[in-house]
Design goal:
By secondary structure, this protein is α+β, with helices and mostly antiparallel strands. 26% of the residues lie in helices and 48% in strands. The protein contains two helices and six strands; from the N terminus they run E-E-E-H-E-E-E-H. The strands form two sheets. Strands 1-2-3 form a three-stranded antiparallel beta sheet, covered by helices on one side. It has a three-stranded antiparallel beta sheet with strand order 4-5-6, with no helix packed on it. Strand 5 and strand 6 form a beta hairpin. It is elongated and about 40 Å long. The N and C termini lie close together (9 Å).
């Protein structure tokens, strides 16, 4: 399982030459909105640090860029692996 790409609030995993799209968890996105007190933002970049660990760069409506760590829970990793196997 490795990060291939992202689109909007989805990330795309490549596994055995197949591609699978998963939505970034609402709780993570809502936490960013609450922390910054904003209703919307754009994801500019997602980088995979290790399996299930990502750096995400967002852009706020004011143009400010912020970085966040997105860590998949063991349950989420198990689910992704079950779907991609």
């Amino acid at each position: 399982m490795k990060l291939f790409d992202f689109a909007d609030f989805y990330y795309i995993i490549e596994h055995n030459n197949e591609y699978f799209e998963f939505e970034i968890e609402d709780e993570f996105l809502n936490n960013i909105s609450e922390e910054l007190d904003i209703e919307n933002f754009d994801i500019l970049k997602i980088s995979e640090i290790s399996e299930g660990n990502f750096d995400i760069t967002i852009k706020t409506p004011t143009g400010e860029e912020k970085n966040y760590k997105y860590v998949l829970s063991p349950e989420r990793i198990s689910y992704i692996l079950s779907v991609t196997e």
